[in-house]
Request: fold
Amino acid sequence: MEWMIYGANGYTGKMMVEEAVRRGLRPVLGGRSAAALEEIAQRHGLPVRAFALDNDQAVRSGLNGIGLVLHCAGPFSATCGPMLEACLDVGAHYLDITGEIDVFAHCHAQDARAKEKNIVVLPGSGFDVVPTDCLAAQLKRELPNANSLVLAFEAGGGPSPGTAKTSVEGLGSGGRARIDGKMTRVPLAWKTRSFERDGEQRFAMTIPWGDVYTAFVSTGIPNVEVYMGVPPATAKRLRQLRLLGPLLGLSPVQSLLKAQVAKRVRGPSETTRGKTGCVVWGEARDAQGGEVKRRLRTPNGYEVTVTAALGIVARLLGGERPAGGYYTPSRLMGANYVLGLPGVTLD
Reply:
């Protein structure tokens, strides 16, 4: 099966190509700019297909003969729709590395079409949301009647430009939580609390992370909150931004903030990625007072994104093909999938 990494010239896309080649895989490199792709392609002797996502016919032509797309070009709020539609048209498996709740919801809504085409649709195949989704499934397995799930993570190294721009987009939408099974809008930095790491208490705030959507699909647990470890000052600033409300979502404001990201954010270097890791916490509770807690330690989130996504690619390229439809990582790969990734340990 021929397969493609789209957005191969982006921050994460380049990492994905390097590791794929190291594993003996030969992806087609896709993206908007042929010039940007050619430099990478020549280094590895890989084919290139350049096409933008704003032309439906060009996308379908670009995917001719492709059986799987690993979509790495965000923000996925803008790019998922056209790429997923093309994959459904041509019958190609669709994977991406989003963490955006609305993107998960859109992909889930295509479940029946994916089953009809017998293709796998799995958004969030990277650090968003493989470690947290697998941890949620493990907790559900240990506490089957759980009705409350808290997930949290603390990530080192800083964001890539794409991740930072996605965070900017989220400012105008506020926070999200799963309450009694329903997706619910909540204020920015809605709740704060602490989690223990190496004998220290680490401050964290709620964020609209993808598991607010996907953990319910994976586990059926009706109440889900996701926290990120941040300095207390960050939560304070976000709470002050609540006063601006919808203004943060206006196009001129978004353009200004994203321009600042483009100027200042480059993503962590290889050295920084090698020196920084992540901790992921999970807590499940049931109505009878039962509680289960677990903690994962992982390499840098971008390293996890690459190994997690390529592991899923390998599964879909292999001889055993799952039935078509929408999947979360744990539903396709199993709750213990994350434990087999390099450098991941369970406390």
Remarks:
- The chain has a mean pLDDT of 93.
